[in-house]
Specification:
The termini are far apart. The longest helix is centred in the middle third of the chain and has 38 residues, at 48-85. With 152 residues, the chain is mainly alpha-helical. The chain is built from five helices and no strands. α1 (2-21) crosses α2 (26-33) and α4 runs antiparallel to α5. The protein folds into two domains: 1-46; 56-127.
C-alpha cells in the first residue's frame, strides 16, 4: 500500500513538472494537479532519483520527437502544400499545422541546446572542481609582536 501512495505522489509531481514545462508557475501547476505547493517540494526532495529517471525518459522522448519532426519536415511541407491546394481544404488550416510544427521544433531545439549546455557546464565543474582564489579574509586576524621592556 505504501508503494502505491509513493507512486501516486511521484505521479502528482510529474504532472506538476509537465504543467511547468508548458509555461505555468509552480503555484498554478500545483493548483491544476490538486496538491499543495509544499507537497510538491516535499515530493521532489524525497524522491530525487525517481524524478531524475523520469525526467531522463521525458528528455529522451522530446529528443525522439524532435528527430521525427526534423526527418519528416520536407515530407510534411510537401503534403501541406498539396493538401492546401486541394479545393476542400482551407490553406490557412494547413499552414496553421505547419506553424505549430515549426514552433514545436524551435521549442524542442532550444530546450535540448539548453540542457546540453547545462550538462557541459556540470561535466566541466566535475572535472575541474570549483575555481578557488587565494585571498585574505577581512575577518582574519593579523599577527602582531608586542615587546615589553623593563625600565631597569
Amino acid at each position: 500500500m505504501k508503494s502505491i501512495t509513493k507512486s501516486s505522489r511521484i505521479n502528482n509531481a510529474l504532472q506538476v513538472i509537465q504543467y511547468l514545462n508548458s509555461g505555468m508557475t509552480v503555484v498554478e501547476a500545483c493548483r491544476a494537479v490538486g496538491i499543495p505547493r509544499s507537497s510538491y517540494y516535499d515530493i521532489m526532495s524525497k524522491n530525487p532519483e525517481a524524478i531524475a529517471e523520469i525526467r531522463a525518459i521525458i528528455d529522451a522522448n522530446n529528443r525522439e520527437q524532435l528527430g521525427l519532426i526534423l526527418s519528416r519536415r520536407n515530407e510534411i511541407l510537401k503534403k501541406i502544400i498539396l493538401e492546401g491546394l486541394a479545393e476542400d481544404t482551407a490553406p490557412r488550416d494547413r499552414l496553421a499545422i505547419f506553424k505549430a510544427l515549426n514552433e514545436l521544433d524551435k521549442d524542442l531545439t532550444n530546450k535540448i541546446e539548453t540542457e546540453s549546455q547545462m550538462e557541459s557546464n556540470a561535466l566541466d565543474f566535475l572535472k575541474h572542481g570549483p575555481i578557488t582564489r587565494l585571498q585574505e579574509s577581512r575577518f582574519s586576524t593579523t599577527q602582531t609582536i608586542i615587546s615589553i621592556e623593563s625600565g631597569s
